[in-house]
Amino acid sequence: MKKWTLLFVLAFTVNVAAQAVKSGEKFVYSAAYNMSGLLTPLAQVKMETETVKTSKNTLLHLSCEATTFSKWDSFFKIRDTYESYVNPATFKPSLYKRDIFEGKYTKKEKYLFKGNVITSTVKKKNAPETTKKFSIGANTNDVVTILYQLRNVDFSKFKTGQTKTFTVVFDEKQMNVSAKYMGKETVKAGNLGSKECYKISIAAKTDKLKGTDKNLIWLTADARKVPALIKFSIPVGTGQLTLTNASGI
Hints:
Keywords: Signal. It holds the Pfam family DUF3108. This is DUF3108 domain-containing protein. It is a single chain. By secondary structure, the protein is mainly beta. It has helices spanning about 1-10, 75, 145-150; strands at about 25-35, 40-55, 60-70, 80-85, 95-100, 105-115, 115-125, 130-135, 140, 165-170, 175-190, 195-205, 215-220, 225-235, 235-245. The longest helix is centred in the N-terminal third of the chain and has 9 residues, at about 1-10. The radius of gyration is 17 Å and the shape is globular.
């Protein structure tokens, strides 16, 4: 489950055009996993945005939550939260948080961004809290920020097969990820009905994703570029996230 959550947040890229993301959005997904050849809904994933004000700045709060349906909690309970606080104009992050509860595994992580340096604080179950600083590239962002930045890409100018490579920081390590534009397809998008979508293939130098053009995302081919469908292939199997409801757009 941790691996498809990572895929969900990796399935997005940079190169910002007109802003498609705004405060007050809420997207709800049904997450299904292939069990004995049958796609079985296991969890709900929610993506939300809201404006928050500090004493010095106005920020956009981006969040992604994954929660197993109650009937699966006794089998493998998941309560994962990913958050990022970004400049609403540039989408540069200032703070990233990750709170993981997956079965018997727990982890809390916080990144404080300052220029090209991250100060990270990490606490795992039955382990002492650790703090360290490490350098990142000028265009490196956390996984939540990258997730939302994809929707600001102008895919109408992409040619089929065109690839964009970028860098994301995850587990205190930088990772190269590529997103390949594969044309348009029409898919069901929950309460939005059937929508023409940009089809994007995700690849990364990691053992968490498997196959060629097996990890895919469909974004609605309109001004909002809502993630309508995600399919993933990981070492332990395959599955998908399907949009059930979109509001605030």
